[in-house]
Amino acid sequence: MRQExxxxxxxxxxxxxxxxxxxxxxxxxxxxxxxxxxxxRFAAERQTLFRxxxxxxxxxxxxxxxxxxxxxxxxxxxxxxxxxxxxRARAFINACQHRGARLAEGRGxxxxxxxxxxxxxxxxxxxxxxxxxxxxxxxGLDPDACGLQERPLAEKYGIIWVRPEGDAAIDIDDxxxxxxxxxxxxNWADYHHYETRRIDVxxxxxxxxxxxxEPYHFATLHRTTVGPIFLPNMCLFDAFGRNLxxxxxxxxxxxxxxxxxxxxxxxxxxxxxxVLFPNTVVVMQADHLEIWRIFPSADAVDQSHMYLxxxxxxxxxxxxxxxxxxxxxxxxxxxxxxxxxPTGEGAQAGFMSGSGRSHIVFGRNEPALAHFETVMAAALx
Length: 381
Ligand code: FES
Ligand SMILES: [Fe+2]
Known about the structure:
Layout: H1 3-19, E1 29-32, H2 39-48, E2 55-59, E3 68-72, E4 79-83, E5 89-93, E6 107-109, E7 114-115, E8 122-123, E9 129-131, E10 150-151, E11 153-156, E12 159-162, H3 172-176, H4 180-184, E13 192-201, H5 205-210, H6 218-221, E14 236-240, E15 243-249, E16 270-276, E17 280-284, E18 289-296, E19 304-312, H7 319-353, E20 359-362, H8 367-380
Antiparallel strand pairs: 1-20, 2-12, 3-4, 3-6, 4-5, 5-10, 7-8, 8-9, 11-12, 13-19, 14-15, 15-16, 16-17, 17-18, 18-19
Bound molecules: FE2/S2 (inorganic) cluster and fe (ii) ion.
């Protein structure tokens, strides 16, 4: 992050500390519980947001070498994303052009080609059909018309997006609405994947994202875990069109008031939460990066699953480093699994029962929540 931005943001935090304040939205807002329970709305979200919009599928550092690949089935479209010999990442439908078998599973590294497990048609990393056994059986078939079906992909700022449905090219700077260069300054393409966790919850996918969007709950819900690390009920909120940045200052940031501005390390003294429209939460912690990709599950409005991907700046080379990152991962997962998500699941169950209030309320001190839900509602109009 540029020093100029770090200085500006630090000044805002120090002013809040002096005034015991936080960023506020203009007004208290009320939102219908049906945001989290309405099946028709849920169906529209799955199509509009998770099929038609660009979705984050991986980080550039997941596909370091030609042949490195990931698969993704989270949107209902089977995707295979691979780094080509030419260095370009491409996305294909993960289905053989012979009779539809899946070409790859999970994530990994393919040697030279993808070979179909069914009858061994093989495909180059640029999607071309490279070889088929017993070619004489397919005389008259045009091999050039048998390449894998490609989907639009964009790679920039260390992040890879795919549009699961449709052929429209992705203009990622248009999509990020001014946030891109700031993301690029973190050099995430040089990071290293440490661990992936899948977490399934009985919550609407938007309610999962809501749990990241305010520090109002830190002093109560996270009293003994991450609460002591952060300033309670203090955030900076900045919208970038449909995306947002929410800053949670650590208590240590107060010490910067005594240091010269050109040495202010804002990133070290905060957790920076970015929501990349529509469903990716990027958490830049002082020393590592978390990517949370949250998806609606199956056909149930009250179920979702997410992938938490943990990235670190240097590869792990010894047990001490491994123990350090394992401990980091442990407190992170414990906090969400034992505190945030059980609380959210309780709220979701209440919403589903139809027994409570028809609306919930977002305080002025929860500006990112109101922004996120407003943006989601507008996207469906
Ligand atoms: S389905 Fe792939 S080779 Fe037959
Ligand atoms: Fe939380």
